[in-house]
Inverse folding.
RNA sequence: CGGGGUGUGGCGCAGCCUGGUAGCGCGCCAGUUUUGGGAACUGGAGGCCGGAGGUUCGAAUCCUCUCACCCCGACCA
């Protein structure tokens, strides 16, 4: 490819709306352009990298025995009504009507379509196991798309679905996919972790997220410092002290203190000069619309999955638990947000176990700009029940090993689930087993965010000058830069090297534009070609060209006779990892 | 959905408070000189100032409505 014809509109300046490196650089280097909120076009360079990502995914999925197919982007409402998700999925499901007024959805995922397909076309356990996958555009109407490709509304995803006779076989399919995912992300050169995760609303009871380690990641992960096992913070088992309060404790007087404009724990802690761990925060939740209060120690965070489980175990049949909005908080506490406290609160109060041993703590006073000190449960308010509601964080103790957790952020690029029979039950997808009985299919589903990987790769590998592509994902492996476009010898040598590299199977861009050397260098760095060959009249007089690898950054002079073989070798080694 | 902000040539911005015929940098076109890390000069092209309505002799500027985009929050209390 010649740079003079390549459609790669690069920019000197950062786009005004981009915050993180991947978004900024993918726009600046001419890989993507936004069309609408959370919706992007992929320009030639961007699309080439996307196709390389797809290819690696395809090769490893095929190797793992999965079969590629293709399902529609537009799906009839009936299928979603059958699984119950037409109502359950919420407003992320973009709904539309056809000319007859029938309801459709833009597919955010394909469990319904694939389950009905398999149900209608397989009849015996002898046809199992089967794993079907596709690489396709999905649409999820995200409440807040952001960070370019990281959280878009339209995105490309690889989704696979496994079907097995029983749970054991399904677990084997799951393990096969887990291995395939490890190979895929290793081949892409990622620093990643497989994280044990909560299954959320997808169902099932076994799930791993594949997280690329990155400071700008949206997910928080904890990892045990001895076993190396990693968990999503909502799932991580922490060792909890279940301590009683000292029965002889003397309680201080309850006191109202002025705390102007201190809305957060950090502000209250600083203002009153008390440790965050001596403050109790009062979270107002809506359990199926009914307000409840949850008390947490000031330095802890709440885990809604645990709270929900506790409510159910206490006999409260609660389907949905959400943090209350500001209006509800004001109504329940009779005070603005930031001053909620348990005393004289007329809703059920649930408290984390770490609150039980606390004496004379600080809480909000349910009055604007006021907190209470010397607060004690039992005397100043009653607790409905205590439970473990804590979300894991750095420094917490791993329940498995007794070692502390470390915390880091990640970009979720893959997620695998063992689904069980959730969809096959709902959609009565059954097969005859060996014993002649009809049994629901055991399912698993396995996603990879193809376009998000493009952003994750840039996030993990860039510098002040631009993108630093790993060889397997680079849109082109090499760029050839004739530094004086009007010098015939320089151009002739550039053309020769360009042609020979292409003949050697190297993907190469010749920067044949009549621009100054500086411009070519800047664009080459920005786009992130792994290898640069700079050809100038000075070096050529000595029979030499300059070879630079983007990642290492150092330049070496190489003879014009050996440069093609040398570069071909670098590219080959880069592709092999 | 709540809070904040921004919409002015392709891109990044100033002008708005205090109304009076639209400006800067980059990019683009032509020419001259340049030519190993985003050149200099000269001359050009390109904008219904997001949209609608209003106030006014006169609106990018003031008022109302609306649309779009960005940031923060939606485990903050």
């Amino acid at each position: 490819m010649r740079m003079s014809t390549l459609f790669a509109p690069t920019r000197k300046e950062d786009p005004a709306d981009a915050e993180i490196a991947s978004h900024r650089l993918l726009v600046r280097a001419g890989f993507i352009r936004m069309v609408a909120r959370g919706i992007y076009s992929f320009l030639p360079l961007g699309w080439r990298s996307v196709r390389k990502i797809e290819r690696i995914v395809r090769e490893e999925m095929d190797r793992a025995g999965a079969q590629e197919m293709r399902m529609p982007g537009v799906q009839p409402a009936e299928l979603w009504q059958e699984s119950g998700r037409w109502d359950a999925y919420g407003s992320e499901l973009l709904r539309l009507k056809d000319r007859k007024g029938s309801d459709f959805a833009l597919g955010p995922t394909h469990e319904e379509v694939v389950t009905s397909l398999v149900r209608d076309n397989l009849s015996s356990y002898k046809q199992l196991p089967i794993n079907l996958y596709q690489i396709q555009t999905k649409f999820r109407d995200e409440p807040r798309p952001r960070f370019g490709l990281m959280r878009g509304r339209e995105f490309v995803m690889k989704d696979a679905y496994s079907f097995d006779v029983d749970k054991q076989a399904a677990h084997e399919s799951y393990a096969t996919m887990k291995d395939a995912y490890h190979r895929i992300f290793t081949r892409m050169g990622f620093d990643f972790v497989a994280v044990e995760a909560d299954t959320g609303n997808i169902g099932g009871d076994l799930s791993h997220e594949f997280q690329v380690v990155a400071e700008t990641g949206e997910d928080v992960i904890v990892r045990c410092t001895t076993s190396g096992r990693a968990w999503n913070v909502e799932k991580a088992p922490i060792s909890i002290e279940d301590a009683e309060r000292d029965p002889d404790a003397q309680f201080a007087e309850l006191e109202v203190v002025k705390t102007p404009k201190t809305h957060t724990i950090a502000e209250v802690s600083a203002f009153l000069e008390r440790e965050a761990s001596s403050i109790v925060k009062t979270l107002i939740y809506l359990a199926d619309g009914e307000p409840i209060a949850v008390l947490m120690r000031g330095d802890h965070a709440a885990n809604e999955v645990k709270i929900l489980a506790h409510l159910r175990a206490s006999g409260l049949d609660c389907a949905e638990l959400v943090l209350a909005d500001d209006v509800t908080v004001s109504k329940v506490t009779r005070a603005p947000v930031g001053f909620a406290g348990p005393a004289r609160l007329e809703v059920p109060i649930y408290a984390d176990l770490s609150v039980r041993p606390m004496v004379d703590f600080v809480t909000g006073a349910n009055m604007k700009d006021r907190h209470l000190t010397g607060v004690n449960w039992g005397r100043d308010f009653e607790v409905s029940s205590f439970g473990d509601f804590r979300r894991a964080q750095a420094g917490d103790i791993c329940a498995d090993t007794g070692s502390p957790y470390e915390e880091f952020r990640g970009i979720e690029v893959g997620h695998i689930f063992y689904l069980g029979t959730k969809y096959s039950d709902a959609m009565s997808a059954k097969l005859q087993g060996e014993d002649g009985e009809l049994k629901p299919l055991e399912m698993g589903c396995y996603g990879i965010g193809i376009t998000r990987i493009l952003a994750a790769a840039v996030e993990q590998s860039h510098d002040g000058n631009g993108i630093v592509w790993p060889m397997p994902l680079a849109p082109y492996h090499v760029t050839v830069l004739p530094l004086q476009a009007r010098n015939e010898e320089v151009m002739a040598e550039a053309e020769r090297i360009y042609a020979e590299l292409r003949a050697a199977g190297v993907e190469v861009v010749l920067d044949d534009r009549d621009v100054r050397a500086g411009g070519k260098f800047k664009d080459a760095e920005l786009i992130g070609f792994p290898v640069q060959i700079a050809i100038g009249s000075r070096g050529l007089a000595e029979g030499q060209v300059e070879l630079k690898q983007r990642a290492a950054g150092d330049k070496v002079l190489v003879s014009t006779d050996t440069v093609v073989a040398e570069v071909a070798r670098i590219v080959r080694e880069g592709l092999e990892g």
Remarks:
- The first strand of chain A starts at residue 32 and ends at 36.
- The two ends of chain A are 25 Å apart (CA to CA).
- Chain A has 15 helices and 31 strands.
